[in-house]
Design a protein that fits this description.
Elements lengths: L1 H18 L4 H20 L4 E6 L2 E10 L10 E7 L10 E4 L30 H13 L9 H8 L3 H15 L3 H6 L7
Antiparallel strand pairs: 1-2, 2-3, 3-4
Helix pairs in contact: 1-2
Keywords: ATP-binding, Nucleotide-binding, Transferase, Ubl conjugation pathway
Pfam families: UQ_con (PF00179)
Family: Belongs to the ubiquitin-conjugating enzyme family.
């Protein structure tokens, strides 16, 4: 039932775009975003959940499952994604909403230091690729370019136990588990 309501939202958005008569590049950009949205809705699962915010095809929210073997394992993180007018040439803007103790994420603002969000973006990638890259960053932090200097310094100076302890503590404090998400209807029931 929830999935069918999500698809009806997509059709409403498509109709709105058609009514406003967007042409040329704007229409192609909107079609690309809608294609990604359809695929995301179809692929939503317990590992990655994507949807639009406030019925705006340029504002998305992702809920990603933290990879196993990380200090965040067993927890889920919400990421705000804004698709700029220049997309897919320009990369999306992504920020963690759920606080995370990670060297490449600014703790207060949620900014993410990730190459594909800056210089390495290519139009061949999409929002799902971005989310996969964020999950990989959670597995393989890059302490040499920290936005969170405390987390970066712990790793740079070899204190992996301290880093993992802090990461796990922040995960328990701020990031929900699967059961909490189910209670809020964000994940399908098994």
């Amino acid at each position: 039932m929830y999935i069918s309501s999500q698809f009806s939202e997509i059709f409403k958005i498509e109709k709105t775009i058609t009514l406003f008569g967007q042409t040329g590049k704007m229409m192609r950009d909107a079609q690309r975003i809608l294609k990604e949205l359809r695929k995301a809705k179809k692929d939503n699962n317990d590992e990655l959940w994507l949807e639009t915010k406030e019925d705006n095809i340029r504002n998305w929210v992702a809920v990603i499952k933290a990879p196993e073997g990380t200090p965040y394992e067993g927890h889920y993180y919400k990421i705000d994604i804004v698709i700029p007018d220049g997309y897919p040439i320009d990369p999306p803007i992504a920020k963690f909403i759920t606080p995370i103790f990670h060297p490449n994420v600014h703790f207060k603002r949620g900014d993410i230091c990730l190459d594909i969000l800056k210089t390495e973006w290519t139009p061949a990638w999409g929002i799902q690729t971005l989310c996969t890259a964020v999950q990989l960053l959670m597995t393989e932090p890059a302490p040499e370019s920290p936005l969170n200097t405390l987390a970066g310094n712990l790793l740079r100076y070899g204190d992996k136990v301290g880093y993992k302890s802090m990461g796990a503590m922040f995960a328990r404090k701020f990031a929900p588990t699967k059961n909490v998400l189910r209670e809020n209807f964000l994940l399908s029931k098994e």
